[in-house]
Structure formats: C-alpha cells, structure tokens
Amino acid sequence: MRSLLFGLIFTFISQVAVAGEGMWLPLLLKSLNEAEMQQLGMKLSAEDIYSVNRGSLKDAIVHFGGFCTSELISPDGLLLTNHHCGYGQIQQHSSLEHNYLKNGFWAMDRNQELPNPGLTATFINEIMDVTDRVLAFVNDDMTVSERQTMVDKNISKLRKNFELEEYQDLVVRPFFEGNQYFAFITTTYKDVRLVGAPPESIGKFGADTDNWVWPRHTGDFSLFRIYAGPDNLPADYSDENVPLKSKHFLPISLDGVEPGDFTMVFGFPGRTSEYLPSYAIKQLVEKLNPAKIKIRETALSILDKYMREDETVRIQYASKFARVANYWKKWIGESMGLERTKAIEKKEKYEKRFTSALPKDSPYRTILPEFEKLYKDRAPLAFVRDYYSELTGRNIEMMRLVRMGQSLVSNYENNGEESFIEYRDRVKPSVESFFKDYKAEIDSEVFEALTKLYKSNVDKAYVPRMMHAKNDEDMNGRSTNSSDFVLHHTVFNKKDKLLAVLEMEPSEAVETLKNDPLYKFGEQWKMLYDEKVANPLNKIQFRMDSLQRIYMKAQMEVFPNKVFYPDANSTMRLTYGQVNGYSPQDAVYYTPVTHLEGVIEKYVPGDYEFDISDKLLELYRTKDYGPYADANGKMPVCFIGTNHTTGGNSGSPAIDAHGNLIGLNFDRAWEGTMSDYNYDPTICRNIMVDARYILFVIDKYAGAGHLIEEMKLVHPKSEME
Ligand code: ARG
Ligand code: ASP
User: H or E segment at 553?
Assistant: First the structure.
C-alpha cells in the first residue's frame, strides 16, 4: 500500500514536472498526449483539436505571412495576431497625417479595411505521415548524398499522387533530423486586410526595455481579415471578394485564468534544437553567444547614441534597433538560463546514461566521441562564421549593398548584360528604400568599431589584408587611416553616387564597382572567408547533420519509454501546460498575471517606451472596464504559462480546457529563453496578452464595438458551476 502510494505520488510529481515541455504534432495527439492533457484538465478530445473529417480547432489556426501565427475569431474571417507581427503592414499604411503606429488604426466598417499586397494566410488541411514513402529504398550503407538523392526522388514521386488546386501546396518536411517525414496540404489566401491596431503606446508598451521581460504590460495585438472570392476560395485582391466563411473560429472566454489552469498554444514554431550533444551547448555558451552579444552591444551603443541626439534618427532607426536588440537580449537570457539550470551537466549526465545503456559492440558507441571531435574542429570556424555573418549580413549595413554589388558583377560576368540589367532593375527599389532610413555617419562608425573588434578577436589567418592595414599605403599610397579612405571613397554609403553607378552602361558599372575600395574590401574578405571558413565548415556541418540524425535514432532506441517530440521546423504544433508563476532568482517569485495598475506604475509621460495615452488613463481613472474586468474589478493585461514556445509562435492563441481563446502568445520570459535548447519547467514561461485586455482595448478604448459583435464571447467557468 505504502509503495503504491509512493508510486502514485511519484508519477504525479514527475508528470507535473514535465507538463509544458514539447511541441507536438496535431496528428499524433491521440496516441501521445490526449491522456495527459485530459489529466491536466482538458475537456476536449484529440479529435476536437485535429480532424480531417470535420471542423476542428486546427481550422482556426493560420500561418500569418509565413513568419507568425494568427487565429480566426469570428465566422467572418476576422484574424487575431500580434502587433509586432502586423508591424510592417501597420507601418506601410502610416504617414505623417495618418500615423497608425502612433495613434492606432480602426476600420469602422468593412470598406475601411486596408489591403496588404504580398501578405498571406495559410491553413493546414491535412497532415500525413509519409516516412515510409520518403525513406523507401534508403539504407544505412548509403552515403549522405546518395541518401539525399533518393529522398528527393521519393518526394517528387509522392507529389505526383496529389492533385492540388492552384491555391494549395504539399509541403514535405523532415522530422527528428530526417528519421521521419510528414507532409502538409496547405491552402493559402492572398487577400488579407488590416482591420485594427492599437497605438504603439499599448501594442508596443515597454518596447525594448520590456522585451523578453516578465512582469509585462504590453497589449501586443492587431486584427486582420481574410477575404475570399465569392465561392469562398482563395483569390487575388478584388472588390468582389468577401469575408472568408471559416470552418471553425475560436470563441473568446471572458472568465480569465487562475494559477494551475490548463492552457494550450497552437501555432507555427520556427526552430528549436533540443537534442544536441553537450559539446554544442558548451560551445554556444562559452564562445558563440558571448561573441554575438559583444558585436551587437557595440553596434547598439552607437545607434543609441545617435538616436538620443536626434528625433528623426530615432524614428529612422527604431525598427532596425528593435531587430538587432531582440536577439541580442535573447542570447543574454539564453546563456544565463543555460548556466543557471546547469544545462551542460544535465546533458553530460544524459549522455553517460545513453552510453552505459549501449551494448559493448554497439555502433552507436562512436557517436559522442565523434561529436566531441567535430565540435572541437568546428569551434574556430563557427566563431568566425558568426563574426562574419553578424558584421556583413546584419550590423554593418553598407556590407549588404556590397553583397548586392557582388551579385550584379557576377550576373554580368557569368550571364551577360541582360542578366545584369534584369537584376539591377529588380534591386533598384530596395536600394532606394535602403537609403530612406540610413545615415552614413552612423554606419561608418559601426563599420570602424566592428572591424576593430573583428581584428582583435578573430585569428589573424581570417583577417583580410585590407582590414589589417594600419594606413592605406599598402593599398593606395596615401597616408590616411585605411578605413577612413575606404569609407570616404566608396559609393556604397552614398545614395546618389551608387544609383548613378547603377545607371551606367553595364560594362562601365561593373568596372566602377570592381574598383570601389569597399567593394575590393568586401571581395577580399569574402574570398578569404569562403576558402578558409565556409568550405571546411560546410564539410564538418554536413557530417554533423547526418551524425545528428543517427544520434536521434539511437536515443529513441536506447530510451524506448521516453516520449520524444520533434524539434520545431515552422510546421503546425501544439504545446500545452499551465498558468504558473516562477522564481527567477533566490527569494524572488513572480506571480503569473499582470493588471492595468502595472501599466500605470510603469508610466513615464513623454517617454517613447512608457508613455500612455490620455484615453487609457481616463479609462483607468474611471474604471470603465465594461464586462472585461476580473472578479475583483481589476483589468488583467498579461499572463504567463509553462507552454513550450519559440519564435514563430508569436500571435498563437492561448486556448483553455474547452477550446476557447483566453490569450494571445507574444513572447517568453527572459530567464527561460534557453527553451530552444533546454526546456526547463521551473523557469521557462511563455507570455500572453489576456483576451479580456484585447476586448477592452477594441471596445472601450477604440470604440470598435462592431468588431466585438461578430465574435462569440463565452463564460465556460460560470457555466460549469
Ligand atoms: N521578443 C519577441 C519576439 O521574439 C518580440 C519582439 C518584438 N518586439 C521588440 N521590442 N523587438 O519576437
Ligand atoms: N516573440 C517571438 C515571436 O515573434 C516568440 C518567442 O520567441 O517566444 O515569434
């Protein structure tokens, strides 16, 4: 009896401890998760979530533009996603007279909804396990490229079995590092209109200071609507189009959440790497993250200085700064979390168990030693790769134009004049828009600071000659500082000069580009990089990828009772957990729900991150919350849970035990951003806006009650009593 009780307690504890980890395939919920989900409080069946035969929750979940998630919340195609997901569209419709970023935007009827060329909304019709067909005739004796050739052949054969409509697609993706394959039939709508967005002072409240931070007070949402042709099928934008009649949409719960409540988050997580060996994590924490953090910190401090000096610059650089700062901050939290939860030791222990479970003569015995060697060989190369890609691809802006210049030249040299002209005409608009929000002075300072950092941190063997030069005598016989010379004489940081070069006769343009000092500098750097870094690194990476596939298979064989979930790969997944606080450090505990009081506490009048509009202050002062306040009369704003999410999950619905929307996922808590490598239920939390705050802003703040009318508001908790 006693041992039985112990056994029960043990199972209970171990189950509570894992509730949260995993990004599950909707197709496999029945066999892998349904029982546990119901034990945690879910009242639905797996079939209610994913079914091909009838409308199910999955029919309300929409891949937004391919980079975020969104969900239907009305029978008329009304789509909810994050403010930061719709940011580009909101910005594009904004002008000085109609500053929707600053003041918000609300279509007061359907004629006012704004089209967004290029924006797509994709549904998943069906998910199929196609492993057998994709891996047919593949065997362990094949080389990696033989294997890939066979896989590609099988996939194209598979495609022929499906007769797809022009608006449908069949997407086949590897899972578990290529040990399994799943296919997705998708339907994509192309007329997606902007319906509403709160002002940045709500939708981006706290901006970068609060990004990745709990406690959080951001109303990070925006509304769109999917339009279809009169036959309800996808159609290009047209006046004839009508709001989509959807198979399913999410009712919205007005009952809110309490600690311990079941939650699930349904969406399109981008990328995780949960099954890497300890050596990978060690390299990340000790070498790669610190390097990338330092690079971005250096660039950000320069941007910050200029943005503080000049309001125009602040606006020009706001979005760039946010993009660079987003992952800079994430990596800091990630490294801290990996260290704090002793992720490396945890992996090492796991690897010991793995090895000791292997028979003496198992071929798997060589996996980990080989990984150790590969990661060691990779270390210096991966370090330079990160430096190179951060500098040329991200932080030194003009290097991106140099890359365009390189493509122009190679188009000319390999394919002739016409190809040059075709490519030039295609990129010209992006060159113009590059300079719209660009200041050469800032970029030049970033160039100087980052190349200096490169020289002092990267092994000499990888530093191009022109970067070495103390003065440009080595290059041109003059005695100014070499980077001064390059920056002064290049056309790549000067709009008119660069555009003039693009207008020249192709042969002349190519000659001029090739003689440009920054172009030469970029060429020299690229050639050195390709030869000494990219080529050897690709070889190592190639072997690592196939070893990772074998390691994955081996782990599944060695631990047959462990339930594995596949790493995120931008396909539809469900994750579930509970509303729960956490302890970020000794003696500190964060409770899981924030309120409008907290917004007011953070208020800094006139500040670009923490200002509040008069309207919101007024609603707070008069407590005019309508039916959206909680039981204590307070206005909830955000909450956290143990749902395992990552980039791409932004805009995903948080759903209660009955299938109703309770919140909108938009971020993770900083201390747990390591969940991409090592999910730990003690500190990994996803951050959601409370659905009631969204309704309050739409109704009370924006006066867009007509939108509330098309939604379905429910009281699941009170109905149960
Ligand atoms: N951290 C969130 C995510 O990774 C939100 C990013 C947008 N907000 C910002 N301040 N940059 O996407
Ligand atoms: N903010 C992320 C996104 O945009 C979500 C996350 O990384 O947790 O998808």
Answer: helix 535-558
The reply to whether 650 belongs to the active site is yes
Q: Quote the CA–CA distance of 266 and 56 in Å, as a whole number.
A: 12
> Does the active-site annotation cover 220?
yes
* C-alpha 532: how far from chain center: 31
Task: Print burial letters for 201-228: b (CB count within 10 Å at least 16), e (below 16).
Answer: bbbbbbbbebbbbbbbbbbbbbbbbbbb
Question: Looking at the whole model, is its pTM more than 0.85?
Answer: yes
476 Cα–ligand 1 center, Å: 45
Least confident of 120-124, 607-611, 703-707: 607-611
**The token pair that represents 690 in the structure block:** 């409370």
Backbone angles phi, psi at 71, to 5 degrees: -145, 150
Q: Evaluate: CB of 645 within 6 angstroms of ligand 2.
A: yes
CB 646 near ligand 2, within 6 Å: yes
Query: What confidence category does residue 473 fall into, taking pLDDT thresholds of 50, 70 and 90?
Result: very low
Helix-strand-coil split of the chain, %, nearest 5 = 50, 15, 30
pLDDT given for residue 436 in this prediction: 87
For residue 700, give the 3-state DSSP assignment.
helix
- Is residue 266 within 8 Å of residue 62, measured between CB atoms? no
Rounded Cα distance between 109 and 128, Å, is 40
Cα-Cα-Cα-Cα dihedral of 503, 508, 512, 514, to 10°?
120
Q: Is residue 133 part of a domain?
A: no
Q: What is the DSSP letter of 568?
A: P
Cβ 495 vs Cβ 397: under 8 Å: no
Ligand closest to 209 (CA) is: 1
CA 659 – CA 654 distance, rounded (Å): 9
CA distance 532 to 654: 47
The length of the chain, given as a count of residues: 721
Separate counts of helices (H) and strands (E) for the chain: 30, 21
Residue 648 CA, ligand 2 centroid: distance in Å? 6
Q: How many structural domains is the chain composed of?
A: 1
Q: Which residue has the tokens 């596939």?
A: 549
Q: Is the CB of 650 under 6 A from ligand 2?
A: yes
The one-letter amino acid code at 186 reads: T
By CB atoms closer than 10 A (0-12, 13-18, 19+), residue 433 is: exposed
411 lines ligand 1 (CB under 6 A): no
Give the ligand whose atoms come closest to the C-alpha of residue 665: 2
pLDDT digits (tens, 9 = 90+) for 348-367: 999 999 999 999 999 999 99
Range of the domain at 502: 278-547
Task: Please check whether residue 635 is in contact with residue 696, taking contact to mean a CB–CB distance below 8 angstroms.
Answer: yes
Q: Is 517 in the pocket of ligand 2 (CB under 6 A)?
A: no
> Which residue's alpha carbon is nearest to atom 3 within ligand 1?
667
For residue 553, is it within any domain?
no
> To which H or E segment does residue 588 belong?
strand 588-590
How far is residue 341's CA from residue 271's CA, in Å, rounded to a whole number?
21
Give, in order, the Cα–Cα distances in Å from 437 to each of 87, 100, 442.
16, 19, 11
- pLDDT reported for residue 10: 40
Please work out whether the CB of residue 647 comes within 6 Å of at least one atom of ligand 1. yes
CA-CA-CA-CA torsion sign (416, 418, 421, 424) = negative
Give the distance (Å) from ligand 2 centre to CA of residue 164.
Answer: 32
> Which positions ≥6 away from 622 have C-beta within 8 Å?
none
In a domain, 537, yes or no: yes
Q: Is 84 a catalytic residue?
A: yes
Residue 667 in any domain: the answer is no
Q: Which of 210, 220, 516, 699 is catalytic?
A: 220
